[in-house]
Structure formats: C-alpha cells, structure tokens
Design brief:
Blueprint: E1 2-11, E2 24-40, E3 44-50, E4 56-64, E5 70-71, H1 77-92, E6 102-109, H2 119-131, H3 135-141, H4 148-154, E7 158-164, E8 167-173, E9 183-187, H5 194-205, H6 213-224, H7 228-246, H8 251-255, E10 263-265, E11 273-277, H9 284-288, E12 294-296, H10 297-300
Parallel strand pairs: 3-6
Antiparallel strand pairs: 1-2, 2-6, 2-7, 3-4, 4-5, 7-8, 9-11, 9-12, 10-11
Helix pairs in contact: 2-3, 2-4, 6-7
C-alpha cells in the first residue's frame, strides 16, 4: 500500500488579489488529508472518502475500458468531478492506467469538510504525488485557482506565494511573532465556494488596471510585524483594501462592529474561518453569537 499526505491551508493576506500576481502570505495547517492506494486484480478504480470522524461519506467504482476511457454508473456531482480529475491525471501521465490493473483509493480528511482548509487542494496534491505529475498543472486542469493551496500542501512552514507571468513562485518563511497566543481562527458556520468567489472577483476586476504594490507591502509588514497593536492596524488596513477591491463591507463592520479586537477575513469572503485577535476569554464574544468553533493559532497552524 502507498500512503500520501498533504497539509491544509489558510491564506493570511492577499485573498483574491493573489490570483492576479499579488504577494500572499499563506500558512499550512496541522490538519490535512491522507490518500492510500492499493493495487487490486480487478480492472477498476474503487474510490472511498472518509470524514474526519471516520464515516464513509462517498464511495464509487470507476471502470477503465480498453481505450483507457474512465466512466462510472454513479451520476453524483462528486463522481462526475472525480472522473474529470482522473482524466486529467491520465492526460498528465498517459501510462498511469496502461497496465490495466485496478486500484483501491481511500481519502481520509483530518478536518470537517466545511472548514475550508483545502479538501480539494489536499486531494489534488495527494493524487499528483501518486501519479508522479505536477500538482500545479493538475490543479489548473481541474479546480483552478492561484495554487497557493498546493504550495501549502507541500510545505511545512509559512510561504510567501506569488504568480509571476502566471507561474507560481514561492519562498518558505517563518511567521512567528511574539503575540501568537493572541491569534484565533473563528469559523463562520458556513462554507464559501472558492470558485464562486473567484468568478465574482474576476467579473469586478475584468477591466481594471491592478497595481498591488501597496498590498504587497502590507503582506511583508504582516510577516515581519513584532507587536500586536501594529499587527491589528495592518489587518484592518488590509480589510479596507480588499473591501474596496471586491465591493463588500469588511467583516467586522458587517457583523462584529462592537468587538474590541481586530478581525480579518481569510480566503474567499463570506465563509470558512476568519482571524480574530484577543485572548481566550475574549473568544466568548463569538461563542455567544453562535460561532462556537474557535481554534487557537497553536492548535491550527503547523
């Protein structure tokens, strides 16, 4: 049996703008996804997806015919998407299924799927490892996006990530300010579809000339910041910048205007986790409003 693993991700800066070449700070999480692959004698691919609590939430069998075409009687959206991913794998590695032998593939998440830590990107990176293909190319053929999540899947430290002429460039960095115990991740109780967010952003910026020099500077200042008060001012400035870019109000203005600490959206606005500053006692504010999933920095980030 072969076993592969990829880390989840959180995008700390340059959400949306990273798609157009802005410099982003991204952090891999302690939660990720495993993929086990076993050879079988049956000329099929049997897929099983297991949740973070050990339940099987999806399974299907995929056939490979003599022409190496992949198909399945399962008509669910997940099965259709997996056919697309398997075909992309085959496109990048044409010999992958030539031996006409079968495989049993089992993916196992370490986090609830609605947390938005990268159930798709960790899967893509695991499959790319198995098929020995470039994960960024596989992502481009399937889910799309900037690729920062693939970079996080592959690294054990924070990264500065940027697309230069459409190609990913990255630099491992250490993000370890002295105020880490004052950083918390709060879940919005809903998952945001990243592809929908990307589409909306692209529509808004289609005819704009984008200059991200200010945002790039903010990313570097966030990375190198050493005191909490300055960090809070930086993330509030960042929120206002992205708010103007995507024409949505900052999260604190919309929902938490009486919160004493600072709040920053992460990734696609409207769902998943956001970053809040404060102490453990201050997190009672969010719990009192029904946001009961609060994870400390040390619990979340690798």
């Amino acid at each position: 049996m072969q076993l592969f693993y990829s880390h989840g991700k959180l995008l700390i800066s340059a959400e949306y703008a990273v798609l157009d070449g802005a410099l982003a700070l991204a952090l891999p999480t302690k939660f990720g996804q495993f993929l086990s692959v076993e050879s079988t004698t049956k000329n099929t691919l049997f897929w099983k997806s297991i949740s973070n609590v050990g339940t099987v939430w999806f399974e299907a069998e995929f056939m490979i015919d003599a022409s190496l075409k992949i198909f399945t009687p399962n008509t669910s959206a997940i099965a259709v998407r997996l056919v697309q991913v398997l075909e992309a794998l085959q496109q990048l590695n044409p010999t992958l299924f030539e031996a006409h032998k079968g495989y049993a593939l089992t993916s196992t998440l370490e986090f609830p799927e609605n947390w938005g830590l990268g159930s798709s990107s960790t899967l893509i990176n695991n499959l790319a490892q198995w098929a020995q293909v470039d994960a960024f190319e596989l992502l481009a053929l399937t889910f799309g996006g900037s690729g920062f999540d693939i970079a996080c899947a592959q690294h054990d430290s924070g990264i500065l990530y940027q697309l230069e002429e459409g190609k990913p460039t990255l630099k491992p960095v250490v993000f370890s300010p002295p105020f880490l115990e004052s950083l918390f991740f709060v879940h919005r109780n809903q998952k945001q579809n990243s592809r929908d967010g990307i589409t909306a952003y692209k529509t808004l910026t289609a005819h704009q000339i984008l200059d991200f020099s200010t945002l790039n500077s903010l990313t570097l200042e966030l990375l190198n910041c050493t005191d909490l008060e300055t960090f809070e001012a930086l993330i509030e400035t960042h929120e206002r910048y992205i708010s103007i870019l995507i024409q949505q109000p900052p999260l604190k203005d919309a929902l938490f205007s009486d919160y004493k600490g600072a709040i920053k959206s992460l990734g696609a606005w409207g769902g998943d986790f956001f970053l809040a500053t404060g102490n453990a006692e201050a997190m009672a504010y969010f719990r009192s409003k029904g946001y009961t999933t609060v994870v400390s920095y040390s619990e979340m980030i690798l």
